[in-house]
Amino acid sequence: MSASVSIRDRYPLLIGGRHVETDRWDPVDDPFGGADLCAVAAATPDDVDAAVRVADAVGAEWARTPPTERAIAIERYGRVLDEHAGELAELMHREMGKPLPEANAEVARALEVVHYFAAEAERVLISQLPGTSITTGSLMRPAPVGVVASITPWNFPVALILWKLGPALAAGCSFVAKPASEAPLAAWRVCELAIEAGLPDGLVNCLTGDGPLVGEALATHPKVAKVAFTGSRRVAEQIATWAGPRLKALSLELGGHGPLVVLPDADLDQVAEVALIQGYANAGQACYSVNRVIAPPNLTGEIIERIDEGRQKLELGPMATDRGVQRHMRLIEDATLKGATVRGGEAVDSRRLEPALVSDAEVGVELIDEEPFTPIVAVMTNDDIEGAIAEANRPDYGLVGYVCGGDLRRTLQVAERIECGTVVVNGWRVVTAYAPYAGWKGSGVGVELGRPGLEAFIRWQHLRVLA
Ligand code: NAD
Q1: Which of 119, 127, 402, 429 has the maximal Cβ count within 10 Å?
Q2: 232 in ligand 1 pocket by Cβ < 6 Å?
């Protein structure tokens, strides 16, 4: 641990541009094993109501603000975030253990998203479909959906709130954030900086506290128009049961079970690099992880050797939660009992794990079927490309897939058959601000980033002008 950011004793709620104290405070755990880091306010349903109502009132004004002015205000906010990038990364490092270089990279990429959507705010255009004269025809008017409730997890605490906040503000929406209880500080500061950057008071609010309590109050509130959620499928289903019958717009960005399909002419250095970087990034606590490397039989031995060599040189940050450590141990035990070969995977201390490399694991082993969300890469063998594609698409996930191959035409033909919202070809970088990120199948509904990620916060009005 090398960060020096000063952590406040208490983080109140942010409602209507003000700090709001509460009667109850929740401790924030230190992943490095020290005393609790600090306390955050525990919001009540009344606090949720207050935040949503102020967001609704201020949002009506923001929706009427000309897009060019919105763009200027969001860009100003982006620059304030830039000035505090190091602080945000350090907060994240302290609260959830992400190593500083990874935390800095997350913040840098997340801030690109804010600048991208500041520019997109000016491109929210009315379009006219001409009729028989200049005064007749159809106007397609983009209107903001309204108040957005954002519920985000702890594994990418800055990126995942900004993927929602940037486009929501650009579309003309107001925002109530509920960061993860495990790591609320960096996301809270993102919201406080919106106030410091001069965005209208109440446009961006932040409620910390108990997930189910605050989540239900948000997802059932009559003035919340959209719930933008990233997290586990279990919680997504719960949120859908609250928001669905109330006919709210929903986006649910969930977990993945990333396949890396290796074609016979793939560059094995590249395969090892993709598996090592994306298999063990964020100590495996990433939705876009490489979980299964699916390779032809004659390449499997070499691939295992190369990943194993790189794996042994890695030193991972601590797991963000004790839950994650326990889950990892359970998955390794299950695989071992079912006959798999496991390299590494031991506990280094109470929160740190060695990266694990698993081979000879078949369908029916839990880590092959369910998102591990811990640092485990499995190498599987498939005799032919059809079998590899079938294995890639087998689990009920479809977030990010990877394909490595020599012949680009053939590699792209395979890539487009991988049933994932994102397929990365011959490399490991997944996300850009300007391209959509979406979970297919059990990995979610809706889309974030890119132009579709902006339109996800827009409802269209058709003005049919007949005379
Ligand atoms: P989680 O579902 O436990 O928590 C997510 C958020 O929901 C937190 O803010 C939490 O406080 C809140 N919450 C918890 N219980 C709730 C309830 N009953 N009702 C309402 N809200 C509740 O998820 P997590 O463990 O923090 O995150 C891990 C999951 O997120 C993994 O599956 C991971 O793959 C997924 N993820 C997906 C993406 C993506 O973009 N698709 C990105 C990152 C993480």
Answers
A1: 402
A2: yes
Cβ of 154 closer than 6 Å to ligand 1, yes or no, is: yes
Residues of the chain under the 50 pLDDT cut? 1-2
Give me the amino acid identity at 236: A
* Tokens encoding 411: 């590699």
Length of the chain (residues): 467
Catalytic residues: 253, 287
Structural domains of the chain, with CATH = 10-254+442-465 (3.40.605.10), 258-432 (3.40.309.10)
Say which residues have a Cβ less than 8 Å from residue 449's Cβ, sequence separation at least 6.
Answer: 113, 163, 167, 431, 432, 433, 434, 435, 436, 437
Decide whether any atom of ligand 1 lies within 6 Å of the 339 Cβ: no
Cα separations (Å) of 335 from 159, 194, 280? 33, 46, 18
Residues 295-319: tens digit of each pLDDT: 999 999 999 999 999 999 999 999 9
* Ramachandran region, residue 136 (left: φ > 0; alpha: ψ -120 to 50; beta: rest): beta
Query: If you measure from the C-alpha of residue 388 to the centroid of ligand 1, how many angstroms do you get, rounded to a whole number?
Result: 30
